[in-house]
Backbone:
């Protein structure tokens, strides 16, 4: 009797599971595709090392390197349930590497608010623990004298300064560090990028656009003559770069293939 | 008709079975790279091609080939002639001299930690896409060994020992450039350097001197040396990015470097960042060996930079010649750089010429 009851129970459970499977869509992964432009003009490899851009302050400049880190792509449904793989992606624009990123998380199809973090937030920004980032680009690390951790972005190039000379700049974003205090005071200058609500289907690709000109524009009009190098230990420069970064990214096209 | 088809399928299956019975391909004795703790902790795994795994027999053959002048046209020059173990496998001469007495135009590169060159672009200009391909060139280069691989292979075939060694390493006596360079690459991948004073400091085994400690600060400080953006950091103990840069040596570029390989004018005058490991043994410095001492190198970045069109943006205050280090910072930076040298590497008996 007990066995019959048990078998019946198993059958009901199994049947119930089957029914659930029939009504629940298979979880899917989502692709993010990163594209880059200067106020609308697409940036390709051939655009690097050409002094062809003019920033909001009026300096003519080139890009020679543009590498940046994003992390914690998060999909939040209308019930407030968040799906986040907690992984990261290092985009190299000139080398055209990692331009497409598939966060390692499977989510049920549906509508989601999609966000990611530019750089690493403090929870993730742990010195030396990511072997692939230690190995990338000669080491994506930040010196311990600045609190350690990792770069968020390395944007480099040349500009024409106010004496008409062509000189290099290194617009590197990191966690802000105030070295005038002991120990160094740090401030998390990563920021969240909100891509809005996206309908996720079986093969969804979300374009993430970076308008590079925005790094120099809003709210802080960037004067490269004053701020072109040694920006990593410059606490206020890091705050301003973070502020400018919040208008850099936007959602482009969403494709359902 | 169906019957015929069944017979045909049976024959095919039988044939397949017969082929399977011939047994697996020859496999020499595996000898995986011994990865130093620091590299294992900090870095992604080394690059070892799937078609050239490390083996005891392959490494031994590669080592013998590396030290044997048999690969050169007149039997006078080995790889080791210009890649001396005592110099961390580089040449103390500015330019090495080939078998015909002709000098090259670039300084011989040191050889260590080759499997951690994740970009796999070898030579100063990155023209070789793998270590195996790299090993092909010196044999045929007319100002180096000036041989042909046909000749070199014939010499090896005629030798009393090599056919047996190739058979042990690769299961065949059919000696050719492919197998010879595979063996050389296997040996070169074993040349691992990770036991410097600074490595020991990172492992908590010793303290840096105050001078070395300040030198590290100079190295890592964007407002002083700012060396780390190209030369690694304690979390990347390779001390190179293995990327190509123009570091402000010349106003007029005479050697296009990376640009010669890619044809891209944006890369004229770019050369691969060399590792800072073992600087105590690798003078002279730069791609053309122009600097005889480390002091000259430091002076270059401090006061000697000159502008050219492709100069790297990371070269700061070029109009003033560089970052203007104080004499104390220069001395300390040098002390730190020398702490990256690894005497156990140049004295490793495994890396000496076989008896």
Residues:
């Amino acid at each position: 009797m007990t066995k019959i009851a048990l078998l019946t129970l198993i059958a009901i459970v199994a049947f119930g599971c089957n029914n659930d499977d029939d009504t629940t869509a298979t979880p899917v992964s989502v692709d993010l595709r990163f594209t880059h432009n200067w106020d609308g003009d697409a940036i390709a490899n051939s655009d690097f090392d050409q002094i062809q851009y003019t920033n909001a302050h009026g300096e003519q400049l080139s890009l020679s390197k543009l590498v940046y880190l994003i992390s914690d792509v998060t999909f939040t449904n209308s019930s407030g349930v968040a799906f986040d793989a907690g992984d990261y992606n290092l985009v190299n624009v000139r080398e055209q590497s990692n331009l497409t990123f598939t966060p390692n998380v499977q989510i049920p199809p549906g509508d989601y608010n999609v966000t990611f973090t530019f750089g690493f937030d403090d929870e993730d920004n742990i010195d030396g623990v990511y072997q692939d980032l230690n190995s990338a680009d000669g080491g994506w690390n930040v010196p311990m004298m600045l609190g350690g951790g990792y770069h968020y972005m390395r944007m480099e190039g040349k500009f024409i300064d106010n004496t008409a000379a062509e000189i290099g700049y290194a617009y590197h974003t990191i966690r802000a560090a105030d070295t005038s205090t002991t120990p160094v005071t740090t401030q998390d200058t990563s920021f969240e990028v909100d891509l809005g609500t996206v309908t996720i289907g079986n093969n969804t690709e979300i374009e993430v656009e970076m308008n590079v000109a925005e790094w120099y524009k809003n709210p802080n009009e960037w004067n490269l003559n004053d701020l072109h190098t040694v920006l990593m230990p410059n606490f206020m420069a890091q705050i301003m770069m973070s502020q400018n970064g919040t208008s850099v990214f936007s959602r482009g096209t969403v494709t359902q293939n | 008709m169906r019957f015929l088809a069944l017979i045909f399928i049976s024959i095919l299956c039988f044939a397949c079975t017969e082929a399977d019975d011939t047994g697996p391909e020859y496999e020499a004795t595996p000898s995986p790279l011994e990865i130093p703790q620091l590299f294992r902790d900090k870095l992604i795994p080394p690059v070892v091609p799937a078609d050239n795994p490390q083996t005891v027999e392959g490494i031994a053959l590669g080592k013998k080939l590396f030290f044997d002048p048999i690969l050169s046209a007149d039997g006078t020059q080995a790889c080791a002639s210009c890649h001396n173990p005592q110099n961390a496998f580089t040449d103390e001469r500015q330019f090495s001299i080939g078998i015909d007495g002709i000098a090259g135009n670039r300084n011989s590169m040191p050889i260590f930690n080759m499997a951690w060159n994740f970009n796999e672009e070898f030579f100063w200009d990155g023209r070789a896409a793998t270590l195996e391909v790299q090993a092909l060139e010196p044999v045929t280069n007319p100002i180096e060994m000036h041989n042909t691989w046909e000749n070199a292979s014939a010499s090896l075939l005629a030798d009393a020992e090599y056919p047996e060694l190739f058979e042990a390493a690769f299961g065949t006596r059919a000696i050719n450039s492919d197998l010879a360079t595979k063996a050389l690459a296997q040996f070169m991948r074993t040349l691992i350097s990770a036991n410097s004073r600074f490595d020991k400091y990172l492992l908590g085994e010793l303290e840096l001197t105050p001078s070395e400690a300040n030198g590290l600060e100079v190295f890592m400080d964007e407002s002083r040396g700012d060396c780390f953006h190209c030369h690694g950091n304690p979390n990347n103990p390779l001390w190179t990015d293995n990327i190509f840069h123009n570091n402000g040596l010349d106003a007029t570029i005479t050697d296009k470097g990376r640009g010669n390989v890619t044809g891209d004018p944006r890369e004229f005058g770019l050369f691969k960042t060399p590792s800072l490991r073992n600087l105590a043994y690798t003078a002279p410095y730069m791609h053309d060996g122009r600097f005889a001492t480390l002091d000259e190198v430091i002076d270059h970045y401090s006061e000697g930079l000159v502008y050219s069109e492709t100069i790297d943006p990371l070269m700061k205050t070029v109009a003033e010649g560089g970052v203007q280090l104080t004499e104390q910072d220069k001395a300390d930076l040098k002390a730190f750089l020398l702490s990256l040298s690894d005497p156990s590497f140049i004295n490793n008996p495994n890396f000496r010429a076989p008896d």
